[in-house]
Amino acid sequence: MFGKSQGRHEIHFEPDEKCPPLRAIGSALQIFLPNTISLVMLAALVVQASGESEAYLSWMTFTVLVVTGASMILQSLRLRYFGSGRLIVTNFNVPFLAVSAVALHVGGPGLLAPLIVVSTLVQSVLTLHLASLRRIFTPTVSGVVVMLVAVSAMPFIISRAVVPPEGYTALLFLAPGMAALAAGILLSLQETQVWRIWILPVTVTVGLIVAVPLGLYDIDIIVATPWVSLPAFGWPGLNLNFGVEFWVLLPVFVIVNLTSFVKAVGDLSVIQRASYRSQSAIDFRSVQGGLNVYGLGTLVSGLLGTLPVAAPWAVTVVYIGFTGVASKSVGIYLGLLTIAAATFSKLLAILVAIPSPVVGAVYIVIFGMLFVEGAKTVFTGPADHKKAAITGVSMVLGLSAGALSGLFEGAASHLVGNTIVVGGMSAIGMTALTELSGLRGKKLRTDLTQSSLPAVDDFLRQFAEANSWTEEGKNRLRIVGEEVILNLLDEETSETAERERSLVATIRPQGGSAELEIVVTSDDAFQANIENRIAYLGQDETLEEEQQLSFRILRHYASSVHHRKYYGIDIVSCHVEK
Question: Which of 115, 147, 255, 307 could form a disulfide with 374 if both were Cys (CB 3.0 to 4.6 A apart)?
């Protein structure tokens, strides 16, 4: 889409900008507090639900903190195929929580481990073929899954963690949480970002001010906990017998992993959009790098016999909005703090002792804002009846999952009762159906060379004539095709120009317009992004006058241009009016 990109002036430090160490550490500490509490709390909930021992809980707490911390450091880096190069907060893979508790209850850590390892292979295959799945894992699907996470996480946390102890009425027990929530809402409604920066620490502080006099903050546990300790439980190993329980639960884990993959794609895309002052086209190479770290973290979690962590959380967007800092250095500090907390028992005790209603209040604010980010992702660009139908039906089915689960028994009930799985798979299914029922496009396969221009021009001319386009529309389509090819040719370097580049041009009629899609195997030769160049036309001083003219022609003749960059593949999509 064209026009000026929406500014995010509240971002003080973008991912690659150098943030002062004290500011970065301060931002990391604000994120560290709620993120670590949720890691420890969710680990305890799953272990309690499965009936596993306290020793295993100790092992799980230690391993999830180490794996999560390491994954956040890796995400901050930008190696060739690993890392997104951005601040990515990671945490439990939410769709896995219920089915992991079932696997632990049925066969213990030895059964959970191979289920996670084997199902992760599906995720690895999907990451390699992300470009091919671009029409299925759309912003609509990603946004729906993000919204489902926001609306399903809080009921899970409240129903299992917010339980009044003996001797306390519900109102008295909830008082710290209500006070904390009121403070959080009050600050979130402020126009000035200076106030919103302090939402998380102020929310927790207000909750503790109320909780301590009521005796709801257990200081005795903190005093009794040693400063440093290691888990008494050792590595549980892998059960490679692959018995009946494994084969019954494997399909469930594969489907959950597919849903989690869609969630991760959406989360990484949402975070990337929110990390910059001005909106830019998504760099899917960064998304693939983030997915590779996520896959590696899930695999390591399985091998360690612990819950799958290292999943990117879209709540990173909310944290960035609170602190105004998206610098990747925050992710490095956050990762180091999380790893240090794995052995720092006293610190963990301080965090775990915070009353669950206060933790719930913090996450109500966070997940409330996360829901809005998911909605923004869905409704980016023009709304249409297909997008509305996919979103509405998927949300309603997802929210009905709890009622549907009562109709099934065993592992199936846990799968059908998973809000994210039901809603996410519905969105994927409806999107795939829309794609399959659409008109098939005509294709042209050739090489990306100057000599291929006449072939592309003739291909577009024949399409326009076959579909009764006006002479003006036909010329508009041919000009757009020519300019896209020329821009891709201009991006070649002397080194890459010697290699053969295959080009596939596909054109599909869409009512009174057509979608022209040009796919080039680029081997990462094209560093610039046509979509961004058009969006910032007039602001980019590196463009020569001839290049600016080319982008102005594209902006004039095409109603929209999108350029998606994957490892080894460039995909340019243009909509041209008939």
Answer: 147
Residue 386 near residue 138 (C-beta atoms within 8 A): no
For the chain, the average pLDDT equals 84
* Dihedral of alpha carbons 269, 74, 568, 537, sign: positive
Q: Residue 230: CA atoms inside 13 Å, Cβ hemisphere, count?
A: 2
Regarding beta strands 569-577 and 311-312, do their DSSP bridges make them parallel or antiparallel, or are they unpaired? unpaired
**Closest residue by Cα to residue 514 from 435, 456, 439:** 439
CA distances, 262 to each of 96, 425, 427 (Å): 13, 9, 10
> d(Cα 47, Cα 108) in Å, to the nearest integer?
10
CB 343 within 8 A of CB 296: no
- d(Cα 343, Cα 223) in Å, to the nearest integer? 16
Helix (H) or strand (E) holding 442: strand 442-447
The CA-to-CA distance between both ends of the chain, in Å, stands at 18
Strands 90-91, 502-510: pairing kind? unpaired
The span from the CA of 544 to the CA of 560, in Å, is 22
- Rounded to whole angstroms, the maximal C-alpha distance in the chain is 83
Q: Please report the pLDDT score of residue 1 as a whole number.
A: 43
Question: At residue 143, does pLDDT exceed 50?
Answer: yes
**Which residues fall within 8 angstroms of residue 396, CB to CB, at 6 or more apart?**
none
Residue 51, Cβ neighbours under 10 Å: how many?
10
Rounded-to-integer distance, Cα 277 and Cα 573, Å:
25
Question: Helix (H, G, I), strand (E, B), or coil: what is residue 381?
Answer: coil
Q: How far apart (Å, rounded) are the C-alpha atoms in residues 220 and 19?
A: 39
Kindly give, in sequence order, each residue whose CB lies less than 8 Å from that of residue 241, ignoring residues fewer than 6 positions away. Answer: none
User: Within 10 A of 527 (CB to CB), how many other CB atoms are there?
Assistant: 9
Three-class HEC string of 90-103:
EECCCCHHHHHHHH
Model confidence pLDDT, tens digit, residues 222-257: 888 888 888 876 777 777 777 888 888 888 888 888
Distance CA 221, CA 214 (A): 16
pLDDT classification of 174: cutoffs 50, 70, 90: very high
Q: Which residues pair with 521 in a beta bridge?
A: 569
Spatial neighbors of 247 by CB under 8 A, at least 6 apart, are none
Tokens of 451: 């000599």
* Residues sharing a CB contact under 8 Å with residue 121, sequence separation 6 or more, in sequence order: none
